[in-house]
Write a sequence for this structure.
């Protein structure tokens, strides 16, 4: 696992996959996921001519926690990583909770980001009723505890210990809660990857996961301010976040092309990996 030393002593852990000479794409993992979230068949990424870069956000996997992290803190870390890798410009992708992080990078780094690809991206909560588009009960409960973050932290640590104790059961429980994702999560090629990447996500007992959740409460920018060409993919049967959230976000980004995967759930991107990379 490569690690970048950041100013102030923090560390940022990352991986590179696919074609070393390909078009650079920085993939922002979902909330509750880690840098190991990707399609495990590297041939798909190489064939797409993509140099895939995945990064643990602060408090996730091998990356040091940044207390009080805001969404707009993330682009500075990414810029330093891009410098380290010699990337003058690159594309960004974001899945689920990685969506707002990908948009934050594009917002802050401007022309250095060539385009944006989003899959099942969380939208902002800056409009009445926005939180009602969160379908998953556990996510809704966490945000209800935003006034008592210490309590959410205690519950999160306990939950993460249970999950890490039996990752196979943990992945299966996600499929039970979201049947539209069962075929992806139980895919024998993908399921071991989910166990590995989710286990890594909880290496710091869920600290970075909760930091994500609090950061989403105030993005610090509006989708209307995004200037890069954007491609948004969604599963129309998503049971974790409402497809209406994705459609609304796509309508707010000035240059956004929306593609719907019929019958797809929140994890559908892993069965549409080449399509995502082609965008």
């Amino acid at each position: 696992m490569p690690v970048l030393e950041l100013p102030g002593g923090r560390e940022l852990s990352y991986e590179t996959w696919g074609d070393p000479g390909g078009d650079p794409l920085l993939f922002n993992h979902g909330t509750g996921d880690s840098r190991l979230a990707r399609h495990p068949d590297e041939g798909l990424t190489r064939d797409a001519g993509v140099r895939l870069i995945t990064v643990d956000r602060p408090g996730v996997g091998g990356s040091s926690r940044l207390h009080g992290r805001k969404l707009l803190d993330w682009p500075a870390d990414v810029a330093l990583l891009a410098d380290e890798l010699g990337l003058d410009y690159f594309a960004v992708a974001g899945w689920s909770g990685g969506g707002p992080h990908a948009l934050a990078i594009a917002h802050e780094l401007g022309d250095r980001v060539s385009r944006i690809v989003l899959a099942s991206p969380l939208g902002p909560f800056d409009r009445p009723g926005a939180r009602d588009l969160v379908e998953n009960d556990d996510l809704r409960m966490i945000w209800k505890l935003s006034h008592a973050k210490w309590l959410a932290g205690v519950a999160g640590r306990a939950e993460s210990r249970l999950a890490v104790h039996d990752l196979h059961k943990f992945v299966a429980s996600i499929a039970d809660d979201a049947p539209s994702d069962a075929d992806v999560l139980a895919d024998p090629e993908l399921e071991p990857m989910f166990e590995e990447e989710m286990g890594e996500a909880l290496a710091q007992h869920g600290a970075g996961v909760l930091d994500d959740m609090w950061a989403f409460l105030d993005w610090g920018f509006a989708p209307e301010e995004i200037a890069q060409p954007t491609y948004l993919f969604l599963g129309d049967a998503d049971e974790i976040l409402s497809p209406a959230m994705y459609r609304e976000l796509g309508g707010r980004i000035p240059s956004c092309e929306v593609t719907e995967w019929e019958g797809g759930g929140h994890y559908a991107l892993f069965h549409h990996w080449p399509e995502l990379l082609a965008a």
